[in-house]
Design brief:
The complex is a heterodimer of chains A (about 325) and B (about 350). By secondary structure, chain A is mostly helical. Chain A has one domain: ABC transporter involved in vitamin B12 uptake, BtuC. Chain A contains twelve helices and four strands. In chain A, helix 3 packs across helix 10 and helix 6 crosses helix 7. The longest helix of chain A has about 35 residues. Chain A is globular and about 55 Å long. The C terminus of chain A is likely disordered. The chains are: A mainly alpha (about 325), B mainly alpha (about 350). At the A-B interface, helix 4, helix 5, helix 10 and helix 12 of A face helix 6, helix 11, helix 13 and helix 14 of B.
Chain lengths: ~325, ~350
């Protein structure tokens, strides 16, 4: 049972880290919105799904790649990759702003109960998913292979593939940039101020609406980037992939301590590794169960998440 | 002069009810029950659903949704715990019926208590460790539990995995009333009776100690605990009673559908039932009933726009929540005011 795990430990670890970084970026979308609004951004999974389509549209329709065409090389490759990434981020960012404006803003201004906002967010995520289902005819959409899966080297019996390396490095970079943005920029400071104490921030002259829209935008950008990496690794997308990925990423956010950006980082990576190891030991069909059981255990013994700071537990 | 707002349907209904004396109340109740019981005969009117059989729609989704929404309302509306895994109890009830019905030869009514007890046991098992958590954390744990139940059922051999269980027996006839696949009036009447029992249970409990304890827990759990309310005990009771209703709904559903499979018990069902509760007016049983009726019935009624019906459904949720955030028939003002304070605090 554990033989598989020991045999392929390093290649599993690499796959786990790559998956983990995708989770890190999606869970940023959850954790940042939770930080400022104290609310689950239920539509984030659909924002992610729309983001994956950004990449498909760029490579397939703008650069006219097909399933049979030769993978790009050199400068062309960099151009296609960067523009797909940007397109995914753009699509997801705009979707996130749209979600905030339509589903959250009015209810937030009225200061009504949280459940109404939750249902409104659920409504918009159903609508987003359905629009994509109608546009794609309920069919999975394959993405042309832009990046050839070249094996770079072999370390401890594990193949290091180009796409995993790019995913890990680029995702880490994006995470780092966003984290610096939150830590250092004026807007980032405002976001942190609002998540600490909304009223005090308002009194200090923080423009609440702008901060919240920016939070959704930044979360959307991160989620969109995750969509791009998802496509480079899995090479297909469908209108309903958001749910599984979104659930896992949300679990990751809670695991790391929701509302906490570093928590998203550690939570995402641990969950990615955990999922990969668990599917090697128990079989892929049990991986979601393992993830949830671990989540329940973590919440029981460390309710603020493994790396969480003291988030109030009293919020009903 | 007091100007009556005729759009405030709850006050309007409550006024009539409060002014009526006992015989009048009995008359109102009996007339409405009779009217509702005649709904399956109105299939030829504007109520008809274009593609699905009308009387089948009345049983599932409408009737079962109302039943489950009432059960979930005990958890979410009465005691204020956000449960996103309610479908688990529905699934446990349905699988109890399917497995016992195909193997033991007991009939639906004999299996019903087993389904309810198993669902309640699951409620206690889940509730004991997790109900210490609050708010969103509780939501995510219950959501996880719902998914675990579905995945276990999907990957196990005793549940026949993804193939599901076929040939679940129908309930035995009650005298002249026969359960038939192509004419589901009797099923509808059974659902009505179960709904009435649930309403009765909720109304009785609401005015007694558990109801008051739930109300206190919902408004301020810390204060409730300081006042000496055994919060964990009452939370588990609320969870378990909600589970019992879900389990009963599951037993009936399996016996009506004759076939069940894991894909019928996805997170979407939990979300839909929660949407029914919040859409109709959280905490108010009449609101919940209205909400569940509309959300159960609407997708089938608008099947003529077949492909886009879920899209319309999503948009309706967003629009209604934005303009009536407390639901179509909200709970009483006094209770609402306390909820508001809690949010701003």
């Amino acid at each position: 049972m554990f033989a598989v795990l020991i045999d392929q430990f390093w290649s599993l670890t690499i796959a786990g880290v790559a998956l983990g970084f995708i989770y890190v970026l999606i869970s940023l979308g959850y954790t940042m919105v939770y930080g400022v609004l104290r609310m689950i951004n239920f539509a984030n999974s659909e924002i992610f799904m729309w983001g994956t389509f950004g990449t498909v549209i760029t490579s397939r329709d703008i650069f006219n790649y097909t399933q049979t065409s030769e993978p790009a090389t050199g400068g062309k490759l960099a151009l296609v990759l960067v523009s797909s990434l940007l397109m995914s981020m753009l699509v997801a960012g705009l979707t996130a702003i749209f979600v905030e404006l339509v589903a959250y803003r009015r209810l937030r201004m009225k200061g009504t109960n949280r459940l109404a906002t939750l249902i409104s967010a659920i409504g918009i995520s159903i609508a987003l998913q359905e629009v994509m289902r109608l546009l794609t005819d309920s069919r999975p959409v394959g993405s042309p292979r832009i990046l050839e899966k070249i094996i770079l080297t072999e370390v401890w019996g594990a193949n290091i593939r180009l796409d995993t390396v790019i995913t890990i490095i680029a995702a880490a970079l994006i995470f780092f940039v966003l984290e610096r943005f939150i830590k250092l920029s004026r807007m980032g400071k405002a976001i942190r101020a609002v998540s600490m104490n909304e009223d005090a921030a308002k009194l200090m002259g923080v423009n609440l609406n702008r901060v919240i829209t920016t939070t959704f935008l930044v979360g959307g950008l991160a989620t969109g980037a995750a969509g791009f990496f998802y496509i480079t690794v899995f090479e297909y997308t469908k209108f309903n992939i958001g749910f599984t990925m979104g659930m896992a990423a949300f679990t990751a956010a809670v695991l790391g301590g929701i509302g906490n950006i570093r928590g998203a980082f550690y939570g995402g990576l641990s969950l990615g590794l955990l999922e990969v190891y668990a599917s090697a030991v128990l079989g892929t069909q049990w991986k979601a169960v393992t993830v949830f059981i671990v989540l329940v255990l973590v919440l029981l013994f460390k309710p603020n998440g493994l790396f969480g700071e003291a988030v109030q537990t009293t919020r009903a | 002069m007091k100007i009556r707002n005729y759009w405030n349907l709850r006050d309007w209904g409550a006024d009539i009810w409060e002014r009526a004396n006992r015989p009048k109340r009995v008359a109102i109740a009996v007339t409405s029950i009779i009217l509702v019981a005649h709904l399956p005969f109105a299939g030829a009117s504007f109520l008809a659903t274009p593609i699905a059989a009308y009387d089948a729609v009345l049983v599932y989704p409408v009737g079962i949704f109302v039943l489950m929404a009432l059960g979930l309302n005990i958890v979410v509306g009465k005691s204020g715990m956000l449960d996103l895994g309610y479908v688990a109890f529905f699934a446990i009830g349905a699988y109890t019926m399917a497995i016992m019905g195909t193997t033991t030869g007991l009939n639906t009514w004999e299996i019903m208590p087993f389904g309810i007890v198993f669902a309640m046991l699951a409620g206690v098992i889940l509730g004991l460790p997790t109900l210490r958590l609050r708010g969103d954390y509780l939501a995510i744990v219950t959501l996880g539990f719902g998914e675990i139940v579905r995945l276990v059922v999907l990957n196990s051999s005793w549940s026949k995995g993804p193939n599901g269980i076929a040939n679940v027996p129908m309930p035995p006839d009650i005298g002249p009333l026969k359960f038939k696949l192509d004419d589901q009036k009797v099923f509808f009447w059974v659902v009505i009776i179960m709904i009435l029992l649930t309403i009765w249970m909720i109304r009785r409990l609401s005015v007694r100690r558990p109801g008051r304890a739930w109300e206190a827990i919902r408004q301020d759990e810390d204060a409730a605990e300081l006042m000496g309310i055994a919060t964990l005990k009452y939370k588990i009771w609320s969870f378990t009673l909600g589970a019992a209703v879900g389990g009963a709904a599951g037993v009936l559903y399996a016996s009506k559908n004759l076939f069940i499979a894991p894909e019928m018990f996805t997170l979407n069902v939990s979300i839909l039932i929660l949407a029914c509760v919040v859409f109709g007016g959280i905490g108010n049983i009449w609101g919940v009933i209205v909400g569940a009726t509309i959300l159960g019935y609407l997708p089938d009624r608008i099947r003529f726009i077949s492909d886009a019906r879920l899209l319309v459904f999503g948009i309706v949720l967003v629009v209604v929540m934005n303009f009536r955030p407390d639901g179509l028939l909200p709970r009483k003002k006094r209770e609402k005011a306390i909820v508001k304070k809690e949010v701003n605090a």
